[in-house]
Amino acid sequence: MRANLDAFGQQIPRLDAAMLQHEDHESDDETGRCRVRAVFISDLHLGTSGCQAEALLDFLKYHPSEYLYLVGDIVDGWQLRRRWFWPQAHNDVVQKLLRRARKGSRVIFIPGNHDEFARDFVGHHFGGIEVQEDAVHTTVNGRTLWVTHGDYFDGVIQYAKWLAYVGDNLYELTLRLNRHLTRIRARLGLRYWSLSAYLKSKVKIALNYVTSFEEAVAHEAKARGHDGVVCGHIHRAEMREINGTLYCNDGDWVESRSALVEHCDGRLEIIYWTGARRRQRQEHLGLAAVPALEGASA
Question: How much is the average pLDDT of 195-210?
Answer without folding.
Answer: 57
